[in-house]
Amino acid sequence: MQAKIGLIGAISTLIGTMVGAAIFILLGPLADQTGPSLTLSFLLGAIPALFGSAYYMQLGSMFPSTGGSYVYASRLLNPTMGIITAFFMIMAGVGAIGMLALGFVNYLSFFIAGGSQVIIAISIVLIFVLVNLYGMKFANKIQIVMVAWMLIALLIYIVFGFFYQHSAEFIPIDNGPFLRNGVSGLMMAAVLAFYSYAGYGLITEIGGEIKNPQKNTPRAILISLVIVTLIYMGVSYISTSVVSIEDFISFTTSLPMAASLFLPGWVVTFIAIGGLLAIFTTLNAIMLIIPHEFVVMAKEGVVSKHFARKHKSFGTPYLSLLIVNGITIVLIVSGISETVFATMTVAGLLLSGIVMGMSALNIFKKMPDLYEKAALRIPKPILIACSFLGIVSSLLFTFLAVMDAPIVGAMALALAIIGVIYSKIVKVDILTDSLNKSID
């Protein structure tokens, strides 16, 4: 594949994936769980991502390949695990697109009222399908512009909120106990907060499309995760400092309404548009990334070669893109709720992350030479520790997430069973040598 995305583009893709609608819309429900400890919930929510980022960076440096989840699992575990992991990633992508499309309709109420939720949601999906049909390079340029606007909006909120909090006109607010609903409320909020970090490893899915991926993939993961964590903590701190928790909970669009307390109307509108762009950047990033799971499996003969077909002019894997979004549209029409879509996203990404941790533990047994040649070599004890901790924390968060929507647990189990059966039917037996050649 022709490399098209530089470090800035990779960082924009990851930040756009992680900073989604939640920071603009869902802070109220989170604050209801935590009270003033909202900032701490975002720090705790980052823990699985911080551990997981270590092995994603190592794997991304060793295997600079498109369709990272399938590639890592099939090389370091077995092809069947590669197929199952790819299915989990596709489930996560379908969930994210559905959640964001429906979230867009809810957020749109800040600007206009009325309209069919289903029709508007499907329309926004189709718009970004068209954007991505024009090719990854075009979609990534749009991504950089949208992420820049969104980051500026959030920085304005943090900086001016801080000055307002320390101004003469500000009256200190008593928001009650630090742990509004005790430790259990804080932990449940931390699980929900992890939704905001869940896409931290997705850039490895398009490693083959990144310039100098051995170095830029780990850099993009680390830089993006640090930036996003600081932004979430800054926004949550301001939000629980400048307005009463009860008022904040009642806001339908948390950040714009809170910003209206200390910023002029045109700046509030700028921030509100940033919320729309937060939805768009994640939608765009998911559509950039997830179809490549089909592409890499098609190239290795696991699924039909048609999935690897690209548009002659734009280089877009159009069939894979249309299949992923077609499934999403069917689920939207069927009435799947935003909550179920969200849980599909998190469960799919967490389960994929668990398999990635297992894959990383196998590096020193299966491919020590490739580890030694990698541009990034995380010390063995640290990588093993992070892999174990990442697996354990991801298992815990998966359990808590599935408890909220048991149907998603059933979906994941069904996909795993289908993956095993499918691998037996198609007799997936890929030689290690041929697999390693496909990495180059």
Sum up the structure in keywords:
single chain; 440 residues; mainly alpha; Amino acid/polyamine transporter I; 22 helices; 74% helix; globular; APC family permease
What is the CATH level 1 assignment? Mainly Alpha
Overall spatial form = globular
The major sheet is characterized as: none
- Report, as a whole number of angstroms, the end-to-end distance: 10 Å
According to CATH, the homologous superfamily is Amino acid/polyamine transporter I
Mean pLDDT, as a whole number?
81
Number of domains: 1
CATH domain fold name: Amino acid/polyamine transporter I
Determine the strand fraction and express it as a percent band: under 5%
Count of helices?
22
Question: H/E element string?
Answer: HHHHHHHHHHHHHHHHHHHHHH
Identify the CATH architecture: Up-down Bundle
Q: Which regions contain 5 or more consecutive residues with pLDDT less than 50? A: 430-440
Summarize the structure in words:
This protein has a single domain (7-439), classed as Amino acid/polyamine transporter I (Up-down Bundle), CATH 1.20.1740.10. 53% of the residues are buried. α8 (117-133) crosses α14. By secondary structure, it is mainly alpha-helical. The chain is built from 22 helices and no strands. The protein starts with 6 loop residues before the first helix and ends with a helix. 74% of the residues lie in helices and 0% in strands. Residues 430-440 have low confidence and may be disordered.
